Amino acid sequence: MELNIDQKALVKWLTAGLEIEEVRALHGDSGYLLSNMIAKVTLAADKYFISTKALEQLKRDKVDLTKRYKRGKFYGKKSPYVYEHTIPASLVRKKLLSDSPLKQDQVVEILSSAGDVAMILREEDEILNSSGLRRKMPEGWEWGDDPFARYKAANIDLSNEFLLTEGPICR
Questions:
Q1: How far apart (Å, rounded) are the C-alpha atoms in residues 163 and 155?
Q2: For residues 51 and 121, is the Cβ–Cβ distance under 8 A?
Q3: Percentage above 90 pLDDT, the chain
């Protein structure tokens, strides 16, 4: 995983936080903060996968996928799109905590295998949630298996196109 400057800063934050015993024990708001920072590392990526249905909608909306867009452009409750983590942040947090404390290169390695962000339609997100896969991977999935397994289980196909992103991280 080639990290951009924002991702590098967040990885440093995570690594430092994982060295604190009270954080590893999830005292205070540590669980929320860790999951939020993990999600932000992924969301800070320079490109997001796009589901085939979201791609169809983007084409209807005449979105030029050769351009780079602010992350907030397609984000929000009124948007038909959702930014979805291929592997839920709570599972990544569990993995990071199972081996803590970790050195920065180990944190990067785990985050590199933690999947990506996919732009899907809100209706696809509802299918994912109603399939019982909102915060978990399919039965039998283990760390290192296909990070897109949730989408495959919910019959959400990803296109070969990407949304090029920049700007503030939406969460």
A1: 21
A2: yes
A3: 88
At 73, the amino acid letter reads K
Q: What is the DSSP letter of 138?
A: P
Length of the chain: 171
Judge contact between 35 and 69, C-beta under 8 A.
no
pLDDT, one tens digit per residue, over 41-76 is: 999 999 999 999 999 999 999 999 999 999 999 999
- Terminal Cα-to-Cα distance of the chain (whole angstroms): 21
The whole-angstrom separation of Cα 35 and Cα 58 is: 29
- For 62, counting Cβ atoms within 10 Å of its Cβ (0-12 exposed, 13-18 middle, 19+ buried), the class is exposed
CA dihedral 166, 168, 169, 171 (to 10 degrees): -140
Cβ 81 vs Cβ 115: under 8 Å? no
* Alpha carbon distance 120, 115 (integer Å): 15
* pTM listed for this prediction: 0.92
Note every long-range contact of 31-39, with CB atoms under 8 Å and residues 24 or more positions apart, other chains counting: 31/93, 34/93, 34/96, 34/97, 35/89, 35/90, 35/93, 36/89, 36/171, 37/10, 37/13, 38/14, 38/89, 38/92, 38/93, 38/96, 38/111, 38/114, 39/85, 39/89, 39/171
